[in-house]
Write a structure and sequence with these properties.
With 302 residues, the chain is mostly helical. The chain has helices at residues 4-19, 23-32, 41-53, 57-70, 75-87, 91-104, 108-120, 124-137, 142-152, 157-170, 175-187, 191-204, 209-221, 225-238, 243-255, 259-272, 277-301. Among the domains are: 173-240, Tetratricopeptide repeat domain (Serine Threonine Protein Phosphatase 5, Tetratricopeptide repeat, Alpha Horseshoe); 241-302, Serine Threonine Protein Phosphatase 5, Tetratricopeptide repeat (Alpha Horseshoe), CATH 1.25.40.10. Helix 3 runs antiparallel to helix 4 (57-70) and helix 15 packs antiparallel against helix 16. It starts with a helix and ends with a helix.
Length: 302
């Protein structure tokens, strides 16, 4: 059996491993510890978060489960377990873990976590309730304001805009909030303002592909076609696995009657998402348009 001095040394080694972002070593050391120290829920929670930060999701999940088993009444343990499920795409389990965390110790961040999981499950009304609960607890929570705005941007764009402005007032460099403002402004025909917000989003986070899509759409509306095309292509460059970007580029080319480019863009979308009926329908329609145009040219030539 290890002495208290040995166990203290191992605990210090665990903390050092966590400080060095080495969750695997921390977990191995934790499994060595015997006695009360091995039941330290806080250390297991730290290991889980360290593993999450290192994108070692299975190790994180193991550590989070151990934390919950050690202290089933720890809201923090259930919260980190929810994050592990979320990263693994297990959204129903994440929702349950975040709900349990709130039952044990409600807080505005936990309501935000719950709201995000509910929105990803398609439970938009329940997500809205969770985000409003977060804001009632803390009206300075920019994440709650932002996520509630995303829930409301279609059905209540004015309230969504107010919430996004609130989020930016709290966190002036909130790139995602500028991006969503660009979307809402573009939808309402305020293209110059939409472009300005998208430029702010891109300035703050040039790797966000959707910001490039939103600025492209607004630029197209004011006939800035060269810049719009470059923005669409930039979005595809940033995320070449997203079929929606190729589809939107195809729509753009089709609107300009650049049929050959539209066909290629739609085909790229189909290659990425072969079962999407909307993409298939669009390429069929534009191909027919191309054939009609070719026949008309043949008729003129004869």
């Amino acid at each position: 059996m290890k002495s208290d001095g040995d166990e203290d040394a191992i605990i210090r080694a665990i903390e050092h491993a966590l400080d060095q972002n080495n969750p695997n070593r921390a977990m191995r050391l934790l499994n060595v510890v015997q006695g009360a120290e091995s039941r330290d829920v806080t250390l297991w929670i730290r290991v889980a978060y360290s593993a999450l930060n290192s994108e070692q999701f299975q190790q994180a999940l193991e550590a989070a489960h151990k934390a919950v088993s050690i202290d089933p009444m720890s809201a923090n343990a259930h919260t980190v377990l929810g994050h592990c499920f979320e990263e693994l795409g297990l959204m129903e389990q994440a929702e349950n873990a975040f709900t349990r965390g709130i039952e044990l110790s409600p807080s505005d961040p936990r309501y935000v976590f719950l709201g995000v999981s509910k929105r990803r499950l398609g439970k938009d009304d329940e997500a809205e309730i969770a985000f409003r609960s977060a804001l009632r607890r803390n009206d300075k929570n920019e994440e709650a304001a932002f996520n509630l705005a995303v829930c409301l941007r279609e059905k209540s764009p004015d309230e969504a805009m107010s919430l996004l402005k609130q989020a930016i007032h709290i966190a002036p460099d909130y790139a995602d909030a500028y991006r969503e403002m660009s979307f809402i402004l573009g939808r309402s025909g305020q293209y110059a303002e939409a472009i300005l917000c998208a430029r702010n989003a891109i300035r703050l986070n040039p790797e966000d592909a959707w910001s490039w899509v939103y600025i492209a759409a607004a630029l197209a509306e004011i006939q800035e076609h060269d810049e719009a095309e470059r923005a669409y292509l930039k979005a595809i460059e940033l995320d070449p696995t997203e079929p929606a970007f190729c589809f939107l580029l195809g729509n753009y080319y089709r609107h300009l009657c650049i049929i050959d480019k539209a066909v290629r863009a739609y085909q790229s979308a189909i290659d990425l998402d072969p079962e999407n009926l909307k993409y298939k329908s669009s390429i069929a329609i534009v191909t027919q348009e191309q054939h009609r145009g070719d026949k008309a040219l043949d008729g003129d030539a004869s």
